[in-house]
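To: structure subgroup
Subject: Chain for Friday's discussion

All,

I'm putting the inputs and outputs inline so they're searchable in the archive.
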Amino acid sequence: QVQLVESGGGLVQPGGSLRLSCAASGSIFGIPVMGWYRRAPGKQRELVALITRGGNTNYVNSVKDRFTISRDNAKNTVYLQMNSLKPEDTAVYFCNLNTGSSYWGQGTQVTVSS
């Protein structure tokens, strides 16, 4: 069993920054692919960023050059640094860990508003 615990969400003004963290625990073998997804009000869940075992990253176009995903393999933790936040970034952000099986965190709310 794998547990994912997210933290770091909140309310921020447009142009501000937030850093999300996701700590994984449990039966984790190897270095899984980890990522962040989000679900905005009235929209489907979308991939925001992925980081592979080798540290390669992939981002949805709308967050490129603003968001940075990183990981600490020793701590089984993945981070999402979000800069220059926009109101359209408002969503519930979910951490995902994929070992062949997919695990999800409970989600953390990010609200960008003045």
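Points worth raising on Friday:
DSSP finds no helices and eleven strands in the chain.
The chain has a mean pLDDT of 94.

D.
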